[in-house]
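Thread: Modeling a multi-component assembly for a lab meeting

Hi all, long-time lurker, first post. My supervisor asked me to bring a structural picture of a complex we are working on to next week's group meeting, and I have zero experience with this. I have the sequence lines for every component (233 residues in total). Could someone generate the structure of the whole assembly? Inputs are pasted exactly as I received them:
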Amino acid sequence: ELKVEQNPLFLSMQEGKNYTIYCNYSTTSDRLYWYRQDPGKSLESLFVLLSNGAVKQEGRLMASLDTKARLSTLHITAAVHDLSATYFCAVDIGRYSGGGADGLTFGKGTHLIIQP
Amino acid sequence: ETGVTQSPTHLIKTRGQQVTLRCSSQSGHNTVSWYQQALGQGPQFIFQYYREEENGRGNFPPRFSGLQFPNYSSELNVNALELDDSALYLCASSLGLAGGHVSYEQYFGPGTRLTVT
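Re: Modeling a multi-component assembly
Sure thing. I ran the full set together rather than chain by chain. Output:
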C-alpha cells in the first residue's frame, strides 16, 4: 500500500524567512503533485513533477523531486502572509489505463501559518 | 473554457439515506476522479472514471458508486449514509491522452460539503 508522509504537519513561521516542507512516499513513482488549499476551499494545483531531478518554481515557491530517494520538497523563500494555507503533496503510481492521471494518494498536509 | 463545477455546494442528510453528488468536468476532459476529504485530513481517492467506465477504485465500500455520462459529467452516489461519510467531496477532471500528448494535471472542483446527522 502506497504511503505518503509529509513533515512537518504544522509550521508557524515569520515573514521573510525560508523553510522547506518534505514529502516522502513508499512506492516507486515519478509523478508527484503539490496542491494548496485555503480554509473551506478546494485544491489549487501548484506543481506537477514528472521525472527524477525535476525542479519547478513559481514566485516564492520551488518544488523538486528525487525519485531515487522517494522524496519531494517544497521550498518557501522569503515567506509572505499570503502563503498561509495547507499544502498537500500527492503521488500517482500509474496503476490505471486511460493514459492520464491516476487516482492520487495524498499526504496529510502541512498547515502553514506565516506571521507578520 | 469553464472549470470543474460541482453541485450542490452543501447538503445535509440523515443516517441511512442516499445521496447523489454531481460534477461537470472541464471542457474536453475525459477522466474524472472523486475524492473524500474529512475535516483536517488529506483527500482520499474513491474512484476514477475514464470514458464512462470505472477505471480504478480506492478503499471504499460498494455503497459508494458512480457514473460518467457521454458528455463526461459524473455522479457519485452514496447509499446507506453513515455519520463518518460527513466530509467534503471533491471531483477532479483530467485530459489524459489527447492528440498524442499525455496530460497528468488534475483540476479540482469546489467540492460538495456533505453533513450526515
